[in-house]
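A note from the maintainers: we've had questions about how concatenated examples are separated. There is no special marker in the raw files; a new sequence line simply starts the next protein. For clarity in this README we add a label.
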Amino acid sequence: MCEWLSTSESLTLQEELRALPLLAVLRPFHPLEAVPRIALLAAAGIRHVEIAWSPSRRWSHGCRELTLRFPAIRFGAASVRSPQALEATRQAGFSFAFSPVLDPSLMSCAQRLGINLVPGVLSPSEVHQAVALGCAAVKLFPASALGPGYWGSLSAALDPLPFCIAAGGLEVAHLDGWLQGGVNALALGSTLFDPLSAAAALPRLDPRLAGWVAAYASAPHHQRLH
């Protein structure tokens, strides 16, 4: 049921996240309002950006415009919980989406539309159900409520664990600790940016981010943390 397990598209995305295990999650009122932030992320080497779905009729059009402006960025939809949101994701030209919940009917809808939907999980039962449904990737949400050692603690009982993207309340300072704890990638939102520039027309990235990306990308493969 979950296309992450079998499609080359999904496997390619996982390999890309192994190369740099970080996704940015942006929640603009309108997608094009995120252009300054996406430009900063792209300059810092971030290549995966999620745009939170909105019921606005202009959401899909704005997202499609983002894909034209930033061809080096792989875009996906965030906060997807309905068939309407999945259809908008398809119209935006996005190939993947993230949901905060595990909903088999939503996953079936995503499969019909050709969208790789990463479901949200929290409990061991939800992880088990996601794997039983064929998902090779899940979103651990809200990760900040669990701690960086949580995912690794499931391995004895649920091995092999699916590819895991931790999300929810995480910061740049948490990247190494969570990767050492066993997750495969992290999704960060507003904490990617300097809080002092949050209301500014020209935001600034967290000053630690570019250094972390550069250090991770230059590290020998066997020394990377996932």
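[label: protein 2]
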Amino acid sequence: MTGFLQGSATAMITPFTADGINFESFGKMIEYQIEGGTDAIVVLGTTGEPATMTEAEKEALMRFAVERAKGRIKIIFGTGGNNTAKAVAMTRLATDLGADGILAVTPYYNKCTQNGLVEYYKAICGATPLPVICYNVPSRTGVNILPATMERIADIPNMAGIKEASGNMQQVMETARRIRCKCDLYSGEDALNLPILCVGGKAVISVVSNVVPKQIKGLVEYALAGKLDIANGMNDVLLPLIDACFVEVNPIPVKAAMNVLGFDAGVPRAPLTPIEPEHLEQLKAALNENFIEVHA
């Protein structure tokens, strides 16, 4: 299927306290995304640290997101994992709670075959009538959805597209060639947002848009409108911030950036650690370059 998502989506961080989730802060972040013109939020993607959350916390966060958004923005829940049965159960729960779509990362650590990937996505898509997005991020998972495999996956009726974060533009273009008119291509890597849009990407699923939702939305709009001079200019301004937001493993820097902007994002859960002091200074400098008021 095509047309589920166009524009910018934000891979939301999850703000934690010492005791659990900071729902008040998360609510403010949802409002910030809506005000910034973001088209969708992704809750419990990699950036949201679901690997360190309990099942009760995940369900509570999903319920809160649906209630707070009240239909004002699309909500996509991350339900993938390396246990297919659990991923199916999470997909059913997300559907029941009111999701608009599903994001399913490839199984990690198990390192299944390409045929295994096809069966995994068939199982998840079979568990919901909602649009499902594959998430290809081999640097995290150790598994790469090859273009020929994505062509097969794209034949699943409710497969909406692939969030591509392989970092390999040749592969991205070959995937785009094979799935065009079957399902959509989305950028899952902020540094490659512009080139992926230029080869047929319909949307970006961005980490940096936690921090600058208006700027990311603007970049996408100008790129999709073919106004590449403006899009390139915006991208030139954004690149130092994008670099700073990945100076340490995601979501360490983006959580620090949100704290700098005055949101109570807390710190990542162990085994992730707070940002190193020298990287925090780099992040603040990049925020200032983007004409964003720094509060800390």
